[in-house]
Specification:
heterodimer, A: mainly alpha, abc type-2 transporter like fold, 2 domains, 4-stranded mixed β-sheet, 6% strand, elongated, B: alpha/beta, 6-stranded mixed β-sheet, 4-stranded antiparallel β-sheet, globular
Chain lengths: 375, 306
Amino acid sequence: MPTKLARIAFGAFIQKEWKHIFRDRKTILILFGMPLVQILIFGFALSNEVKHARIAVFDQSNDSFSQELVKRLDASRHFDVVARLNHPSEVQEAFQAGEIRLVVVIPPGFENALHAFHRAPLQLLADGSDPNLGTTVVHYAASIVAASQEDLLGQQSLPYGFETELRMMFNPQLEAAYNFVPGVMAMILLLICAMMTSVAIVREKENGNMEVLLVSPVKPLWIILAKTIPYLVLSTANICSILLLSYFVLDVPVRGSVPLLIGGSLIFTVTALSLGMFVSSIAHTQTVAMFGTLVGLFLPSLMFSDFMFPVDNMPEPLRLISYILPSRWYFYIVKSVMIKGLGLAGIWKELLILSGMTLVLLLVSIRKFDNRLAL
Amino acid sequence: MEAIIARSLSKTYRSGKSQTHALKGIDLDIQEGELFGLVGPDGAGKTTLIRILVSLILPDQGTASVGGLDVVRNFGLLRQQIGYVPGRFSLYQDLTVHENLHFFASVFGVNAEEQYGLVREIYKYLEPFRDRKAGQLSGGMKQKLALSCALIHRPSVLFLDEPTTGVDAVSRREFWVLLSQLRNQGMTIFVSTPYMDEAARCDRVGLIQEGRLLRIDPPTAIVRDFPLTLYALSTDLMSRVKPDLASCAEVLSAFAFGANYHLTFQTSAGPQACVRMLEQKGHTNIRLEVIQPGIEDCFMYFMKGS
């Protein structure tokens, strides 16, 4: 087929694909509603950030220092002091009632000890039945205590003894958004590019459209490629809208270069598209394509991309799974560029891995495309 | 010259342990400009044969060529020269009539407006619905649209797989008139159908059953070759005719045709014996008369005989 005709046919395919997308309300809803909803849900509802945790205070010294400390804890947006305890036995009861996340125990003679020894013990008791929450509230409390200490005593004059200072690099406030925005980007691109594309391609097989299209001079590969183009465009738009949303609504900074971030995202988009093409070359029905991408791709990506659970703590076989998941590398790229502000030098390896995966997937799916009808 | 040639085509489908022999050695020669009908019951292998000829599936054995192009080796060129209307509506339901036509024109690299002359006869039926979504058309309209899309690039050979299945009688007649017009313009047409009455409209008919072509002949030759005398039977007790006939040894075959039964007999004494038997069984107003066999009678006969 002469190239000019090929171009006309290719253009007609892309045009047709746009019509499919914009005439199906469900598709539109997933394409444009999902990124918005996910960002907002993760941003405002589902967060492991602790706000207004209910805490109790067992202040046995009740001096000006201890009172100041309690006041500061209460003033923080992380904590609300809801109970004052008067007896050690009440500590257990408070936790058992389940309302209290943290008990601050201030021993007798707190202020005196500070003045006399420049150090005073302080006990933070957290509910360990939810380890993540427990650790988080202890961290918050410790950083508030440390800050108050400096304010109240000024620089410590006596140089004896160790002093630990905690600081969470790149994210001192422990903002959850810093972690989930890169994660949501990876998941949304995966869903749109891999799932929507594979379903759209398989729909043509299932509806029998492929049967007429195959008996035409257009090569099957072009048919498939034409289907991916609109999704590539839409994904790019989604990347931009997610970045804008997280910057303006969730106050997540973009510390590295924006072009680098978008470039990396485009590479991942192509990876996800080739995953979609690969799935569509195996699946024969839309249901199979959808569940295949959800169970075989989306769930593992959610679990093993370092996004929800730290991969470093996983046993070796599970870590191997994470190595073959493109989203893991993309998650790392976005986090590095966006949050840590790394440049190309810091992520070239990951970019290379993603590109390699894309190449392999493309080659495999192109080889698998059949010029004939699969029965 | 032959537009379609098939030599001992065989195809077996395997799924797990079970095998289905869809085609068992098909030989076929179809002339250029011929309107050829492939007639047979569901599951006879009609769709498989068409799909092999349009290069959609590969035969296990045998060779075939369309317009001189081998369906296995030259499928790229072949696909530019044929038109294909699959058995199942395969256009885009969410695109309008007009959009579908334009899309398929572009796919074949032609301009829909320039090619309009070729499909005008068909498209005039569709013109009032040009902005309606294809999914909302009636069965007959859908098939006319599918035909228009298959013709838009002026194919030299047109394949249609059961184009009139699920289409009302009026649309079916219109559709066959359109096919005859195309044939008159010189196009070779290969059409399959489970409706035997449609076979009479073809130049030649191939009767296919269980993957074998029983015979290929013009419809007139098939009717002429009917070797028996055919009778039409009606009584006042039609509901009991079938079980009663079963007990009559003289009856060779009996098929319900509309309000009548069409019968053939073992011997020339059969008709009389049959009428006597029916009278004994309490049938009244018995009418048994000799009729000319239609093409359907012939198919019933040849299929039973095979």
